[in-house]
Amino acid sequence: MAKAQRLQTECNKVIDLLIKTGVFRGLKTVLHYMDVVSVPLCRKPFAPVDEKYLPELKALAQELLEEKA
What we know:
This protein has three helices and no strands. It has helices at 2-21, 23-33, 54-68. Helix 1 crosses helix 2 and helix 2 (23-33) packs across helix 3 (54-68).
């Protein structure tokens, strides 16, 4: 049960970050940092991710890459 709660807490942090950045914009940026897509920008009407969130998104991408390894 404790592990499930810990995982849910981690998931909630990711969801909160993506909601703050815009889900599509945030996901595309994370995928860019993971070298899955070459361009981190979404097409119009989506604006770029606010630069203040880039360090958090980069850290998330790094965590995901470490889990994958």
